[in-house]
Amino acid sequence: MNDNSQASDQSAYHCPLCQANDATPALTKNGYMIVRCSACGLLYVHPIPTDAELAAHYQQHSYFEGDTDQGYLNYAKMEKALLPHFSRRLRYLTEHLGGPGRLLDFGCASGYFLALAQQAGWQVTGVELSQEMARIAAERVSPGGGQVLTTLDALGDAEFDAVTLWDVIEHLPRPVETLTALAARLRPDGLLMLSTPNTAHWQAQRTPAAWGGYRPPSHLLFFTPATLKRTLEAGSLVRVEIHPSAPRPPLPRWVERFTAPLQARLASGSAHPWTFWLYLWRAIRMAGWGWQRLTHPKDDVYATLEIVAVKQ
Ligand SMILES: [Zn+2]
């Protein structure tokens, strides 16, 4: 508590990135307030839930199965939707590090990326807070010599060539502290790679109620390219490169309404036959890109930010 605690609610604001105590309410979702830091512009949930509340949230079985609002409808099925992204990212790491090495996947869920990396010759370690998911991931990778832990501390001083966080950083209550701890486990010139929803995306900006990235209390932080770069630099990482991905241009409203169920089925991996619907959706998106050029040329169309950075 600081000296001004009686003055107003605002004295309780505390930016997880720059520590500033001033912010402006931006929107409310699921009963949580999301505020914008007056100093660095980061959007964050206020107040941030306690560690105990967050731990309880991720131990629920429903987080990884059956919860469309907070977690995942069925994470196992979603793997099909994740495969092309995971394969592409793994290729990037392998090429830039000159071959497979030691990989740490932080927030590894059921170990799908770990298993993919292991098959490609990487020596893999996962960290996963949800004990149920950690057990599934361990079953997957331990026969091949991989290991899965439930805390970062359990790693000791193991060193890695690459550290990955796929859609994890937006869940972290203390992102700078966690990134610093991860960077400490990278070898010099090792690579950290992560992905997160892009809050500069047109939908997050223009129709925030429809933006799936605003998902408190699972998501606590909402990044734009600028705030994400600043977070990585604060976390002892340098040569931060941002690669926007997953283009999702706006569509005319009637098309959006018509395709929303298809999008949901593709994201959850339940569309059938898969290839047909995937290519149909890609064709619709391409048409949407042309429409966007004409009607909303300033829109940021990328739904995801991917980042690569190097240990200082
Ligand atoms: Zn800030």
How would you sum up this structure in a few lines?
This protein is of the alpha/beta class and 312 residues long. It is 36% helix and 23% strand.
Question: What do these coordinates show?
Answer:
Helices cover 36% and strands 23% of the residues. The protein is an alpha/beta fold and 312 residues long. The protein has two domains: 51-247 and 302-311, Vaccinia Virus protein VP39 (Rossmann fold); 253-295. It has a seven-stranded mixed β-sheet, with helices on both faces. Strands 1-2-3-9 form a four-stranded antiparallel β-sheet, with no helix packed on it. The two termini are 34 Å apart. It binds zinc ion (ZN). The site of zinc ion has 8 residues, from loops.
Q: Please write the string of helix (H) and strand (E) elements.
A: EEEHHEHEHEEHEHEHEHHE
- How much is the radius of gyration in Å? 20 Å
The average pLDDT value, as a whole number, equals 89
Order of strands across the main sheet? 6-5-4-7-8-11-10
Helix content: 25-40%
When the domains are counted, the total is 2
